[in-house]
Amino acid sequence: MTTLHFASPWLLLLLLVPLGLALWPFFNRTRRQPAALQYSDLRLAAQLGPSLRERGRVILPVLRLIGLALLIIALARPQAGSAREIITGEGIDIVIVLDISGSMAALDFDPNRLGAAKRVINDFIQQRKYDRVGFVIFASEAFSQVPPTLDYKVVQRVLDETQVSWDIGLDSGTAIGLGLANGANMLRDSKADSRVIVLLTDGANNSGQVDPITAAQIAKALDIRVYTIGAARPGPAALPFPDGRVEYRDSEIDEETLRQIADITGGLYFRAEDGEGLQEIYDTINELERSQVEVRTFTRYRELAVWFILPAALILALEILLRRTIFRTIP
Hints:
This protein is an alpha/beta fold. The chain has 2 domains: 1-24 and 52-88 and 295-331, no CATH class; 92-290, von Willebrand factor, type A domain (Rossmann fold), CATH 3.40.50.410. The chain contains 10 helices and 11 strands. It starts with a strand and ends in a 7-residue tail after the last helix.
């Protein structure tokens, strides 16, 4: 990014000099007595008016003041600077694993569990800067949506388009193990020093061919830390179905399994019972997983004074030339 600044900005106060010189004739007009000649008959000068040359002489002080102003600006040393960032260190590779089973449509969160999770995850992504972020969804099956990338807008767009399983024609199961395995596979070839999975679900594993504990052991073998989040309010919650029915169902979070996954991989387990609690959890994870990145900014400046000196010299030379030729006066 290019910026413009002056090395000696205080010298710009000298611009008040040409400004004062420009305004002085207006303030002095009332005090100055105009030159006069006596005529025996004023009718001799009645038809006389200022010549074209006399009218054009007004350009001389204008040119002089413009040249002086340009020289003052050049004296203040205008500079154009190009900033360059040098980044040392490495960011974290993070994969968001999100449950989209039918129960995520429950209304104990605002607007529902999935909607609250999407809003908080979106905020979480916005707070990352040098970390690659990937995205996996799961219901009865798991799908790798976005591989780890620094293009956060892509991840956020896919996240915004994410819907509950039955709205996109998927069976409403909960394959926690399969979702976790997909996330671990996404980070398998990562070269980052820190690799993290953040898994959110509101149920218990009841689908898929991979056991959650087996998936956790795979993640541990790949040196991946897993944070697990159970998102549901205790007690029955209203669950609207696509056909218009509404049922009240108790949460089925398998907290013991989620806690084991976190313990095996060196992560933490959290329980969220509302949107505010979910936000606090992601804020906590955000603080725990900080990039070890040092950013140094260097700015290289380029002197611009010559672009003011050259036109100033040409304008002043033109003023002198006109004063001694076309607008020359006889003493």
